[in-house]
Amino acid sequence: MQVIFSKILSQSLSIPEKQISKTIDLINEGATIPFISRYRKEVTGGLDEVAVGEIKKQYEKLSELSKRKETILSSIEEQQKLTPELKGRIDNCWDTTELEDIYLPFKPKRQTKAEIAKKKGLEPLAKILMSQQERDISSRAKQFVREEVKDIEEALHGARDIIAEWVNENESARNSIRNIFRREAVISSKVVKGKEEEASKYRNYFDFSEPLYKSSSHRLLAMRRGESEGFLRVSISPDDEHCLEVLNKRFIKSDNEASGQVALAVKDSYKRLLKPAIETEFAALSKEKADKQAILVFAENLRQLLLAPPLGQKRVLGIDPGYRTGCKVVCLDEQGNLLHNETIYPHPPQNEKSKAGSKITSLVSTYSVQTIAIGNGTASRETEQFITNLRYDRKLQVFVVSEDGASVYSASKIAREEFPQYDVTVRGAISIGRRLMDPLAELVKIEPKSIGVGQYQHDVNQTELKKSLDQTVENCVNLVGINLNTASIHLLTYVSGLGPSLAKNIVEYRTQKGPFSARKELLKVPRLGEKAYEQAAGFLRIPDAANPLDNSAVHPESYYIVEKMAKDLKCEVKDLIEQKELRNKIELTHYINDKTGMPTLVDIMEELDKPGRDPRKGIKVFEFDPNVRTINDLREGQILPGIVSNITNFGCFVDIGIKEKGLVHISNLADRFVSDPTEVVSIHQHVQVKVLSIDPERKRIQLSMKLSQ
Prior knowledge:
It contains 29 helices and 15 strands. The chain is of the alpha/beta class and about 700 residues long. Helix 3 (about 35-40) packs across helix 5 (about 50-80), helix 9 (about 125-130) packs across helix 11 (about 150-170) and helix 11 (about 150-170) packs parallel to helix 15. The mean pLDDT is about 95.
């Protein structure tokens, strides 16, 4: 079966069969996507994590389809209708729609009109009508009038019901209607009468229609959400006359009374059976396509957010701003441990500015604070101004940090376990401070879809969304690499080959035995065997290990190569890392063998150049326009600094320092045509924007990045 799967995937993904087959072998052996893409380049031909992920996804779909075929074959066999030809068709079919079409005539049905007519003995009459050679249909129909069939009309009606089902189950007919739907179907939405006011946010879709193939992901998901909330009626329909014309051409073979009966049956079949079935099919397909696009956008936004620049290990004062309830203040050490917490009230109604200022400067001095992190929620700008106006005994950096998801974390089981003695407000401030130090380590504690990036995340397929986002988190964690001696259970959970159980065992072992001194010590962790070690070791770092390679992305299976390089140059491994001139003397071709090729050797050399390097960029300080604090301060034509807070497939949202985010529509992203916003912007990117329009009533701001106009 794997040979067939490899052939099919090779054609659909345009990747050579051999690479597909080898990748599937690794997947079946339990290898993870990050491990395969990083440490098995020779085996896969250098496929990256995106390609490996797609192979895995499509392979799982084919495996599911294979199981479905077994169920179908078993069902038809039980009915004693499985011919060698039919079995051959099913065996060779790898298209879900085609497979279900083949099965449709044999699928056990509920009590349909056609089934009732067949039980009345009207199938022979249906065959007579379908042949379209009988001229006196009344006489023939009269022969079927008996106990269960009252009159000729009932006999003909029953026969038409049977013909309608035949038309509906005809593969060729279904494909003809599908093709018309594909080319011509229009998706329409109308507001439900009497709900115009409630449905105001769907105003654009009150009387809307466009070709289905042109409908973008966000419009389709918006209409479907409006439909699910009971505000819109959505339909997908082609030109009915064209569809009937095509069906009549296929089924009407003569011009007599019998043909007239067949024409009536065809029309009934199209309206009652065929059209609703194909409309449902296309509704599902278009939704699946829209989901896929939305999930891709979400996953890319999440990836950028997780790989946001970290501040690193510095002492941080974190502030969760507020008015009436005050600003929650926490002091954290270099590892993110809580040293102190309290509440200050610099804003209305208390206005204790002097007292709050003295407290902040005292905390900065007492706890040797190096940086201040302020949440970007309520009272953020006022708090930033208050903090930056204070005089300190040292130079401080002040950052405004996204609060998205912080409230979700602070009320979560994870937060309660970490800080059982503190309430949600303190936990939220800790999360803000830690998020500045290392966004990745903190964000993995929050369910990805609660982080607040993406579009219509609650409307898409939740299983597919979770799979995609979990894989994105796993890829990011393993790209960066994790400090084995400081990582939390939640961070370790996403390391290749581990998961929650082994992550917990590692932390418990670390607590009991002290810090790990070498990667190979992982094998002493309960239930962590050779396979898990192989998958995880390369992504775990030990900064102060005796073997410097334990703090690099060089996999333990390749240590012998680096040791041989050092031996050949008559030096130590640490000398190779410290001295570039020694590395320049290495002739890589000398170290190629049957297991290790040039891709792995190139990776090893890059690691020796910068062992354990963090692939994330350095963090930059950002300042909003001090004159803009509410939507009422905005004027058309203003040029403002902003931070990209979210990306959708219709543009991006920019934080300009007020409560409302502004939208840069895709048409205003650049002085050229843009098909994908991620070509131009990324999450947390610092940008300059021009205010195009302000709608205070709907709290909407239109921005442009085309500043030259």
